[in-house]
Amino acid sequence: MKHRDHCSGPVRDWTRILQRRLIADDIRVRSLQSQIRKIVSSRTESLSQTQIPITSGVKLQTLNYIVMVTLGSRNITVIVDTGSDLTWVQCQPCKTCYTQPEPLFNPQLSPSYQSVQCNSRACQSLQYATGNLGLCRNNPPTCDYLVTYGDGSYTRGELGQDNLLLGTTQIDNFVFGCGRNNKGLFGAASGLMGLGRNDLSLISQTSHVFGGVFSYCLPDTDSEASGSLIIGGDSSVYRNSTPISYTRMVPNLQLDTFYILNLTGTSIGGVAVQAPSFGKGGILIDSGTVITRLAPSIYRAIKTEFLKQFSGYPPAPGFSILDTCFNLSAYEEVNVPTVKLQFEGGAELSVDITGTFYFVKSDTSQVCLALASLSYEDEIGIIGNYQQRNTRIIYDTKQSILGFAKETCSFT
Fold it and tell me: Of the candidates 12, 66, 345, 367, which lies 20 to 30 Å from 251 by C-alpha distance?
């Protein structure tokens, strides 16, 4: 391999030739940059984005967050759950269904509804998505599913597919569970939206449309307050008041449908908290869990520092899993230390004041620190939705990164 100047004979005006070559080189670079811009632009333009109001489920007797979508031609309200994969709704005819204010979804009234067959890829993905094999029925030929949750709740039915409308974007042939036997702590929601990482999750099924990126901003529990669930990666629609800081999602082959982060530290009122469990084992971030659970050593360290800074207030009895409670009924105003969680790469989640205290009684005679301890040191911690309030949380499943930024949650 020889340089092309080797064949051109003796060089008479080397400076002039070099100048022409550098000009040609610059033209080539501009051409490459133009090609790259066109490729990136075409790929970006081919991806859609949609925005849906997200609200507290208090009015439906749940502390989870809910959104309304359209399945077939029916508007349904479902719980948003990043810790689950399969989206499901209660269906007619129903053998055992809990009470919901909305009419049950009736597949027979939706001309676009189809049953999912047993030999389909979706049916074969059930074991990975739910932990239970898809079961085949011959009459009619359907793929039956079963999902059980950690609190004992469950849903059982068959897989179906129908058109799903998310905001203004329609997803054809969306695979979901048509629940005929459902029981548990779902409040009065019509079902659940699975935003996990398995092939059956809404995010995976719509990755060709939205690029595998979604984000949300969770408002407080005021039933009138509304945040937003944004599916798609255009950050220009965010209303964050601080820059987005990103951390990587920690790979875990056994738990790869979950979003796991590396919690490296915490601070209370600007004071760093020390604990041996930081940086070990990972911590889940989950919109379907309400109260954050921490390793015992981390929780004890946070509790000790919080009580040191939030001192002088009369204690109140513990409430359920919450053991750090106060009677603040005699105070019009209190100074609450800021709780911050730090993650690998310098990302930081600053817990909003509305996510620091859990108000057991409305007269503030029993107000508890909204954090709880796990039973054992080797259990995996979970960041619950209470601590995610008024924060834009961005999930990028393609790059396996997750971002945090402060935002006052509102939907317009």
Answer: 66
